[in-house]
Amino acid sequence: MLDSIVFEQQGIPSASIITHLFRATGNAMARTWGLEGFRYLETQHPIANLTSEQLDERAAKLAPEVAQLLLEGQKG
Q1: Can you give the pLDDT at residue 30?
Q2: Residue 34 and residue 14: Cα distance in Å, rounded?
Q3: pLDDT at 61
Q4: pTM for the full predicted model
Q5: pLDDT exceeds 80 at position 76
Q6: Number of folded domains in the chain?
Q7: Residues 41/62, Cβ–Cβ less than 8 Å
Q8: CA 7, 12, 16 angle in degrees (round to 5)?
Q9: Distance (Å, rounded) from C-alpha 3 to C-alpha 9?
Q10: Quick one: residue 40, left, alpha or beta (phi over 0 = left, psi -120 to 50 = alpha)?
């Protein structure tokens, strides 16, 4: 999240992806940096035990949302 926040503050489009269990943490980090409502994407937790194929499936499902966020930016 922090990398994405810093990139966006510098005018560089970015897309953060977190697992749903870290939603509160992501929101708190955005608030701390003065970016209430900072947009990010979520996937189901956990991911550490997924196979490469399963991670590829999740990435494929998120790819359109990543593209949309990058194109729309935080104002979207």
Answers
A1: 95
A2: 17
A3: 97
A4: 0.89
A5: no
A6: 1
A7: yes
A8: 55
A9: 10
A10: beta
Q: Which among 20, 16, 47 is positioned nearest to 33, based on CA atoms?
A: 16
Q: What are phi and psi of 17, to 5 degrees?
A: -125, 125
- Residues 13, 15, 16, 18, Cα dihedral to 10°: 170
CB 43 within 8 A of CB 69: no
Q: Range of 46's domain?
A: 2-72
3-state DSSP helix/strand/coil percent for the chain, to nearest 5?
Answer: 55, 10, 35
Residue 43: Cβ within 10 Å count: 17
| pLDDT tens, position by position, 12-40 | 999 999 999 999 999 999 999 999 999 99
Q: Rounded CA gap, 1 and 4, in Å? A: 5
Rounded to 10 degrees, what is the CA torsion of 46, 52, 56, 58?
Answer: -10
